[in-house]
Specification:
Keywords: Signal. Residues 1-18 form the signal peptide. InterPro entries: Epithelial_Barrier/Signaling (IPR051495), NIDO_dom (IPR003886), VWF_A (IPR002035), vWFA_dom_sf (IPR036465). This is Sushi, nidogen and EGF-like domain-containing protein 1,Alpha-tectorin. It is a single chain. The chain is an alpha/beta fold. The protein is built from 13 helices and 27 strands. It folds into three domains: 34-260, no CATH class; 274-448, von Willebrand factor, type A domain (Rossmann fold, 3-Layer(aba) Sandwich), CATH 3.40.50.410; 455-633, Rossmann fold, CATH 3.40.50.410. The longest helix is centred in the C-terminal third of the chain and has 20 residues, at 473-492. It is elongated and about 100 Å long. It binds 2-acetamido-2-deoxy-beta-D-glucopyranose (8 copies). Residues 47, 49 line the site of one 2-acetamido-2-deoxy-beta-D-glucopyranose.
């Protein structure tokens, strides 16, 4: 009958160093029809007549120049290669994302300086999101115009062959809605600070007079200099920020003084933008109240706003329908109200059809943000669908760019192999827990350096094997074999700080392997092989008492694995056993034999997601490994 394997989520640790990744830059290059500055030293673009008035230090600017040496100037082109300290007089009206001696003559197609004016929707939308996010007071800001200049992989003047390996990649983005004006500096990579004509070292591009970063009005009064400018520390730009996003600086520039984005609260940590489509199974096999509670809990935990998460939702049973799209820009409160009104739909689930038009939800016209990370999260039991057809839809989804597909196993029994088929990876198969879901997203979307995540294993696995007259000698052996396979697999994972025990129950409870570090467990399996099959009844009160005794646990990851054919269970005993277990423990239930009472086996498990068949020992081991991993993000 059903198999139910399961799975959970968890994450990868992010190390704590920064920089804005290339995928988070505003797009640039030939494919964007950017203009490339021809290879040069100390050169500049021709004058750029821009299609709006850009306010800079309260003055109207209609022209600009993109200069090779890491400057955008308004009054005239600038060829000066050694950076000057701000404030600087002499009509130096400049943005300086990285004013230093850049030379693109020797780097061919490995480098480039690109620029364009853009009023493309994708750029305006990204610009609006970022400004709304970093300047909460501007939460209705609608960008009308952007100018994007990108210095990609640029080397320094005078570099030796060795020095040519040192490259810098950064971007300046000018943004206006024709009332206020903003500038974003993005730093992906800064490996040198100084050309040789500014007394830098030819092999490493350091020393001498390093780069100046900031803004200068040219009146010797108004300016903004990023701390570390013209000092060796300026090489740390990818780790620095004025908005707690390593490698990113955001400024309002139209006022008489440059205004830095307000410093976020100490406990605020940014997530990368995510467009999350929830695909929800409302068919008859799902408990609608459990489902609504789960999704509401999930929604409550997510940061839903223009910069972080945006939510759209589809539901399905026999056919699929759109509940709301990204372009509806539903707030958290509106989404929760929508969920509260959802009902079970008639019919059985048609997961294949639900997935067939899913990528359309990620079109820009439906409000998705082209630069955002895309998630499809499917809440389903995975029943009632043919694997082959599902696979076709899954492949289509997974091949969509920048897309992660995760599944959450809900319902009284879950078809884990179907969930595995459509999920991006094993870690993306989630158990129905809002907390697990949150941790999964948090680790997938954490801004590097903002959250530090530590990973550790730890926990307790208590295995209980039925040995009674309800099962035959062969079925008992099948249960024993399940344990051998499970333990061998778990010990091969070298988990630290995971303890495990094996108990066998009938009219008495035998401690076959006492609780101990799992790394030595496979040596103890011999003890298990000595246990004879028993024809006795299960002593139910003894079993409950035993569960209570072992249930006093010290670890937060605690699993109780019941291996039985379910025949000796009844609803009263199931309730009693569940109550004997610490509420923080998860009960996994493994059904044994041909004539398994699956209703009882499922009822005993914490949720349908935690029900397995006796073929699932390897899967259960992988599951436990994932669950035993504790990732703490601070
Ligand atoms: C670039 O220009 C070509 C030809 O004018 C056009 O077909 C294409 O859509 C443009 N691409 C972008 C990203 O604007
Ligand atoms: C830019 O504008 C100026 C004056 O406003 C004009 O003389 C010049 O020809 C324009 N340049 C280009 C490339 O359009
Ligand atoms: C950023 O910080 C990390 C960790 O402190 C360090 O390893 C790395 O070298 C730094 N990078 C730069 C460019 O300073
Ligand atoms: C495992 O057992 C050892 C020894 O009894 C104990 O010190 C440790 O805390 C236990 N670990 C867990 C995660 O329960
Ligand atoms: C576990 O440790 C053993 C011995 O140190 C090693 O041979 C094996 O490769 C390790 N396995 C894993 C999965 O790390
Ligand atoms: C369990 O064994 C592993 C490997 O031998 C060891 O690293 C770990 O510290 C042990 N844990 C405990 C709680 O004894
Ligand atoms: C079950 O075990 C308890 C405790 O050992 C004992 O008092 C009771 O008599 C047993 N019941 C049966 C039916 O054997
Ligand atoms: C359940 O376990 C937790 C530790 O994981 C412990 O703090 C709590 O007191 C336990 N509750 C009961 C009822 O034993």
């Amino acid at each position: 009958m059903l198999h139910v394997p399961l799975i959970c989520l968890l994450l990868f640790s992010k190390t704590a160093f920064g920089s804005v990744s290339m995928s988070e830059f505003f797009s640039f290059g030939q494919n964007e029809n950017d203009t490339m500055l021809h290879p040069n030293d100390d050169g500049s673009s021709p004058v750029q007549n821009i299609s709006v008035v850009f306010e800079f230090f309260s003055e109207h600017r209609k022209q600009l120049f993109v200069n090779t040496n890491g400057l955008i100037s308004f009054f005239k082109a600038v060829s000066t290669y050694t950076s000057e300290e701000f404030p600087k007089i002499g009509k130096r009206i400049v943005l300086a994302p990285f004013w230093a001696d850049i030379d693109t003559r020797g780097c061919g197609s490995t480098c480039g300086i690109w620029y364009r004016e853009s009023t493309e929707l994708v750029d305006l939308s990204k610009a609006s999101s970022e400004i709304r996010y970093y300047f909460p007071a501007m939460n209705h800001f609608n960008a009308k115009w952007t100018y994007i200049a990108t210095w990609y992989n640029v080397p320094f003047f005078g570099a030796s062959p060795l020095g040519m390996n040192k490259r810098n990649t950064f971007q300046a983005v000018l943004i206006t809605d024709s009332k206020s004006a903003f500038v974003i500096y993005n730093y992906n990579k800064i490996e040198w600070t100084t050309g040789t004509a500014s007394n830098g070292n030819a092999d490493i591009g350091l020393g001498g007079i390093p780069a100046q970063v900031g803004f200068n009005m040219g009146d010797e009064i108004h300016f903004y200099s990023v701390e570390g400018s013209r000092k060796s520390e300026i090489i740390n730009l990818p780790n620095l920020s004025n908005v707690k996003y390593p490698g990113k600086f955001v400024f309002r520039v139209d006022l008489p003084d440059i205004e830095s984005a307000p410093t976020p609260d100490a406990d605020q940590c940014f997530l990368k933008a995510a467009d999350i489509l929830l695909v929800v199974d409302l068919s008859l096999s799902i408990d609608i109240n459990d489902l609504k509670n789960l999704i509401s809990d999930v929604i409550s935990k997510l940061p839903i706003n223009a910069m972080e998460c945006q939510i759209a939702m589809k539901s399905f049973s026999t056919s699929a329908r759109t509940e709301f799209r990204f372009k509806d820009h539903k707030t958290k409160t509106e989404i929760l109200a929508h969920i509260a009104k959802m009902n079970t739909a008639k019919g059985v689930s048609n997961l294949k059809d639900a997935l067939s038009s899913t990528t359309q939800m990620f079109s820009y016209n439906d409000g998705s943000r082209l630069y955002a990370n895309r998630f499809v999260i499917i809440f389903t039991d995975g029943l009632m669908v043919a694997s082959r057809e599902l696979k076709t839809q899954a492949d289509h989804l997974l091949s969509f760019s920048n897309m992660i597909v995760a599944t959450v196993g809900i319902g009284s029994s879950v078809k884990h192999d179907h969930l595995e088929l459509i999920s991006s990876d094993f870690n993306s198969i989630l158990r129905p827990s809002a907390n697990s879901f949150w941790k999964y997203l948090q680790s997938a979307l954490a801004v590097p350096g903002c959250l530090a995540c530590d990973e550790d294993f730890g926990g307790e696995i208590r295995i209980l094997l039925e040995n009674s007259g309800y099962i035959t000698r062969e079925v008992f052996k099948e249960g024993r074999q399940f344990i051998y396979t499970l333990i061998e697999e778990l010990t091969s994972f070298n988990l630290t700080n995971v303890n495990s025990s094996v108990d066998i129950f009938s009219d008495e409870v035998t401690e076959a392997i006492p609780l101990q570090n799992i790394s030595g467990m496979d040596y103890k399996l011999g003890g298990l092989s000595l246990v004879e099959h028993s024809e006795n009844n299960v002593n139910k009160s003894l079993l409950s008492q035993h569960i209570k005794d072992i249930g006093i646990i010290s670890s937060s990851n605690s699993f109780i694995i019941f291996i039985s054919n379910g025949g000796f269970l009844d609803s009263q005993l199931i309730e009693k056993l569940k109550h004997s277990v610490n509420e923080t423990s998860i009960i996994l239930s493994v059904g044994l034999g041909e004539d398994t009472n699956w209703d009882n086996v499922e009822d005993l498990a914490t949720y349908g997601y935690c029900v397995f068949s006796s073929d699932d020992a390897h899967l259960l081991a992988r599951y436990l490994k994932k669950e035993m991993k504790t990732t703490t993000c601070t």
